[in-house]
Amino acid sequence: MRAAGAQQFVLGFLDDSGAVDRRALDAVLPELAGAPWTFHRALDHAASRTAAWSALRDLPGLDAVLTAGSPKGVDEGLPVLTAEAAHHAPRILAGGGVREPHLAALAAAGITALHSGSAVRPGGDWSAPVDPALVGHLRQRWR
Asked: Are the C-beta atoms of residues 11 and 28 closer than 8 Å to each other?
């Protein structure tokens, strides 16, 4: 993918014990040739979020960690996200059901990036295309 022109990546691996799979990351990261990457929601399924954050701390090219704070999404994980923001806010990409009611708490916690899917589709329907007007609405509320 890198040779084909990909410039950023999203990936996330846990091992059988629920820890960040450093073996998998050590095998994949050199192939990214220094491209920035995001650790995808595997953190939400880790056996220990504290250990996972520690394992991710110094990985080359890591620019964000996509997390909802819970495997069940932001509705359940918002308290975790806002608590973790004190230590990890620059790296947190809040996602996993982010909707307008979450925005104020995320922003107040210092989280500056979000990933949204259902909130930018009519009726939250994942089979519907992204609606630019809903993206604009969410962006306007985020500021």
From this structure: yes
Question: pLDDT tens-digit profile of 51-103?
Answer: 999 999 989 999 999 999 999 999 999 999 999 999 998 899 999 999 999 99
113, with CB counted inside 10 A (0-12, 13-18, 19+), is middle
CA atoms of 103 and 108, how far apart (whole Å)? 8
Collapsed DSSP state (helix, strand, coil) of residue 121:
coil
Which stretches of 29-92 are DSSP H helices?
49-56, 74-88
Q: Which residue has the tokens 């806002």?
A: 82
- Could you give the C-alpha distances from 73 to 17, 67, 99, 124, in angstroms and in order? 22, 8, 11, 14
pLDDT digits (tens, 9 = 90+) for 20-65: 999 999 999 999 988 999 999 999 999 999 999 999 998 999 999 9
